[in-house]
Design goal:
Layout lengths: L1 H9 L1 H10 L1 H8 L5 H23 L11 H24 L23 H12 L6 H19 L12
């Protein structure tokens, strides 16, 4: 089950890479009148389910209460994730700028204070689960995030998609 779980954890990252590097193809695949960010969000939620099932399949026995480090890591990590979504919305969170949407620049916390706050929040939440999930699977997921941070840091505005009219 280890290799399958590892693939499940890494499964979404080629999709994200494709969307980031080929936004016009994605907009065209989605078709006229369909929101590429919304479709990406729906597919991403399904992929997140696959990731969680993969982690669950390799998790050691679930014990409660969790260790003390769980609470601050998980709560602050989820706070960052929800705050980013609250400030950017679905389009801002799911590559709307790459798909030709105008996303307002946000300077409220955590932006301007934490670089890549959604990824930081996700990594914190994953680290919180170390008492239940073997380290190598958490590390794989974190490496996927590090890869996407690197990919997204190299954005060329000239490669953004043009919305279909």
């Amino acid at each position: 089950m280890g290799s399958i779980a590892a693939l499940g954890v890494l499964f979404p990252f080629p999709f994200y890479y494709f969307l980031w590097t080929n936004p016009q193809k994605w907009v065209e695949l989605c078709g006229k009148g369909r929101d590429p960010s919304k479709i990406m969000a729906q597919i991403s939620h399904f992929f997140k389910l696959i990731q969680f099932i993969s982690l669950f399949s390799v998790s050691s026995s679930f014990s409660w209460p969790p260790p003390l480090y769980f609470w601050p890591l998980f709560i602050f990590g989820q706070f960052l994730n929800f705050r980013v979504y609250q400030l950017l919305g679905e389009a801002g969170t799911y590559y709307g700028v790459r798909f030709g949407k105008t996303i307002p620049w946000v300077t409220e916390f955590p932006f301007g204070y934490i670089k890549d706050p959604q990824y930081v929040g996700s990594v914190m939440s994953l680290l919180a689960c170390l008492s239940w999930v073997p380290f190598q699977y958490i590390l794989l997921w974190i490496l996927g995030y590090v890869f996407m941070i690197w990919v997204e840091s190299k954005e060329d505005p000239a490669t953004r998609a043009k919305p279909l009219s």
